[in-house]
Amino acid sequence: MHIPDGYLSPETALVMYAAAAPVWLRATRKVKEVLSSRTVPLVAVFAAYSFIVMMFNIPLPGGTTGHAVGATLAAIVLGPWAAVLTTSIALVIQAFFFGDGGILALGANVFNMAIAIPFSGYFIYRWLAGGAPGGSHRRAVSGAVAGYLAINVAALLTAVELGIQPLLFHDAAGHALYFPYPLQVSIPALLAGHLTLAGFVEAAATGLVIAWLQRSNPQLLETYGREVGAAGRTVKAAWAAILLLMVLTPLGLLAPGTAWGEWSRGQLQQLGLGYIPSGFDRLSNVWTAPLAGYDLPILNNPTFTYFLSGLLGVALVVVTLVGLGWALDRFLRRGEMRDAQLM
Amino acid sequence: MPERVPRRRAQGFLEKTLGDLTGALEQALFAEDIARRPGLMQSLDPRVKLLGALAVLLAVSLSHNLLIIAALYLLTLPVAAASGVPMDFYFKRVWVFMPFFTGIIAIPALFNAFTPGEALVTLLDLSSPRIYLAVTYPGVITAAFLLLRVGTSVSIGVLLILTTRWTSLLRALRVLRVPQSFVLILGMTYRYIYVFLNAANDMFLARKSRMVGRLSPAEDRKWLAASMGALLSKSYDLSDEVYLAMQSRGFRGEVLVLDELAWHRRDSLWLAAFLIIAALAVALGRF
What we know:
In chain A, 74% of the residues lie in helices and 2% in strands. Chain A is mainly alpha-helical. Chain A has a two-stranded antiparallel sheet with strand order 1-2. Chain B is mainly α. Chain B is flat, with a radius of gyration of 24 Å.
């Protein structure tokens, strides 16, 4: 899922850096608050761990193997904020010292793998695990499901970022300048691989390691995840920030298009004025079918349909996460009430 | 880019992981070796290289002209040669390994189904059933943009990594206003990666040396999860020890990094050259 340089326009890359920066800042503050001077060695050592775990080949039934990202596991053990830092640093080292993943695309890679995975994975885990006792089977299964879903959230985000490239960035003749396939191709292509394979690799890595820790080192599951885990008001603030970023992502990606004078061509095509590259015409006929459900006759326009489906993709993630957040909030409040009664 | 490798009969996950671990170690040692050689890029201040590489990467990314991107790639060749980078490695790293990922991704874009337009080569043209398959002119251009841009960007990254020692690269990150604590963590992480590479390597070798037959994938997964869990516990203990060691040496949370880089006149000249090339490429590449 590491996006190399050359797939994303510089405008997109910049927007993704801008989206990742405030999360980094908040994560640094948040982790320092709890760990103070312990932050440096803990984050450094766990980032190294995260880097190494990404190299492990995990065997699946059927004889294939795959690499796990391990960010959900990190979020469960260390809490989501610390996991943002450790996974980000592993990605920075991969990009700057080993040449895996682009340097310009680093912001996007961090956003997809080091921000979206820890947060979605952590909250799905907390929500599914509920109040189950530390050593319960349910916790390991929740971890596996959270790992599976979180990596698919990341794959969807990656697919949306890649899929909006041909819509926003093309030369005068309509040739795609960066990633050439629209959302209708990028989303199924990326999700197919992650729903069937990479998701299960992540699920196996997360679930089995949690099960092992329950047997062999149960304290580890209790130490940092609780402390550095977001709770109470911070949860809401974090959710608001993440959701805002997600909603703003496609809008932000549109804006630079205008700045570079790309959008006027798009608008021309939308209005049917001037010349319309034959490619766009035919493409709209070939690829409207999968979107027939919301391709209204008035909106029968490839540009608009691309944008709409992009928004829908992100909206789907947002709605899922809001739903999970709401459920989590209720669960936490119920827990607090129970604790209060016990006291 | 789903991260998967089909499993061959001869190679299990153990061998593959061992291969990946040693591969990373080899790559790092190889880069360190080239970075120590005398050469053009090696003689420059790491800040010049970092800013120059970023400027040229941005130019590659901003250019809307295939010829400009190709020209930027060609310009990296004499620089790589003058820096003692083995040219066969320089080509192979980019143009032999890249096609497995980006090449496969670019292939469908060649055809009319994905990129309609004027046909360059018509492969199939049946009237009933209506099947038309052609490599189109816009398809070739689209695929060329992707391949050339990715290839050139990867080459620039490789050139930077191979000719700059990681300690210098870390110090150079300070010019990008990366906070000192972040630079310190990056440096520590880089060191501990080797500790873990060795630990993981030992674990996998020990396992392999005790195996006579083949276990079921379920057993394999269990063992792998145990080793991941064991490494996780190890990381926790290690971070504790490192913290105590840092504390006993006076660490109280403030980070001080020594900036012992020296800027020479030729560094300014080279930085100017990189920036002018990048600016020219952006200006010419807008058309």
